[in-house]
Design a protein that fits this description.
CATH topology: UDP N-Acetylglucosamine Acyltransferase, domain 1
Helix content: 10-25%
CATH class: Mainly Beta
CATH superfamily: Hexapeptide repeat proteins
Oligomer: single chain
Strand content: 25-35%
Number of domains: 1
Length: about 190
Amino acid sequence: MTEREKMLAEMPYDPTDKELVEMRAYARKMCKEFNDCSPEDETKREKILKDLFGSTGNSIYMEPTFRCDYGKNIHVGESFYANFNCVILDVAEVIIGKNCMIAPNVAIYTATHPIDPVERNGGTEYAKKVVIGDNCWLGGNSVICPGVTLGNNVVVGAGTVVTKSFGDNVVLAGNPAKVIKIIEVK
């Protein structure tokens, strides 16, 4: 397997692999181009994101600044919106459903490292996919950790750190996140 294939299979991989280094450099270049666009260049920003991401719906809007590792591992549904200072570390896939909103300073992480210090110091990394369902709203300064799946109609309160998966129709808050309300969908 190539290092990229290992990475996408959520296996330990070498991040210094030439192909991965080149892919990250391209993503950084595209993020810089996106972040440097003037406010009037909404069409250009949208085109950059559609070229950078693995897949998108027709309607996608993000405020600058935005940062990611690869871009190609990010998949967003129709009517996606992200506010200022979004970070998505897409070492593994990040799949976000339709009608999702991301508030300012939200971080979605798939990248992680071994807990054992000897193994970690050896330089290998791995990742765990993140899936966010339809109609979700991630509040400001929230963090979605590696391996998390959120169901449909989930609201993540401001400042929440989501370390485990949750089902549909809940409001989450806290560190670590816990259900604070059930949403009764009409």
